[in-house]
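Convert to structure. Protein one:
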Amino acid sequence: MFITSNNTSMPGPMLEKCLAYGKLVHYPVGKLIHDRGDKKPGISLVVSGEVEVGNYDIEGRYYLTAILGVGEVFGEFTVLANLPRTHNAVAMNNCQILQISASQTHKLLTDIPQVQTFLLQSLATRLHKVLERLDDVIRLPTHVQLAKYLYQIYSQTQHNKIELRQQDLAIRLGVTVLSIHKAIKKLSALNLIHTSYGAVLIPDMVYFVQWLNEQSGILPLNNES
């Protein structure tokens, strides 16, 4: 269940203020930041680099849940709800992570109320995405899930060429490479995408979005009460 994480990054000036409350730790590529089940309370803030969050199943297959970039926070529920960590976190590249203990986190939230507001908004945004993704898994066939994910990537980058291999897409959607291969063939047959080595191209975004809306099968969300 891969979760894209736009709109959850802490603004630069706020991040700078947080530096005084924690310890800046360097993690080289591939270094484990924390394990699933780790109960040590504290929050982590990505200062540079990217963090890969995911889990292994009983057969050793890895499932990517999220990629966190600069300004993103993880581990909030270890402090706010005294819960263990649910995923493994690994440095995707050379990272600098601000590690803030539980006591310092509480001090930070008291001293700088804007950080508390940010954390609440960030958590709400992630919960919204988790529920949306869960609904996709329950209701939508794989090729529609893939189309929706491709559109999410386009929305973040504004590039209609998505440079991801079939193996990468399979990891992000939590399905087999064969399932992704079949999904790509279906989308290609509908002239929704073109493929090249290691990339997918969406030639007509208007047509793509129209088709995707038709396939969702529920009314779109709005801001009306």
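Protein two, convert as well:
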Amino acid sequence: MNSKRINIRKTALPILLGGLVAVLIWSSHPLADDKDADIRNAILSQIEAFANNDSEQAWAYASDGIKRRFGSSEVFLAMVREAYPAVHSATAIEFAERVPHGMFEIQTVRLQGPEGRRWDAYYNMVLTDGVWKIAGVRLQPADMGI
């Protein structure tokens, strides 16, 4: 009977060690959800800054290309307020698919604007020095379905 216990322990030890190694390897790799969370947080943080009319905070999430194009946080905020009211004053936000495109990612976001109209926003996200920045947004009316 003792030999049976020893055999079970000898068999269980490699399994336990293998499981421990698998857990250590898995925990050392970043989760795929980290990228999703980082991209979503950047978009949500910028939308929140727009809602608070905080031009500097909204500007912080803009890519270098956007910053060169608009020159200042005030000009940028004024443009978003005028041209993208659904982004500036969103009343509902839902994240949809994210599509990798090599050097950038496209994150689809469904928005409801202040007038109640629904939009699909396609966020062009770029990774700059380890931080996700917004390089542009294309809006189109959402498909209302059946």
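The radius of gyration is 23 Å. Residues 1-30 form one domain.
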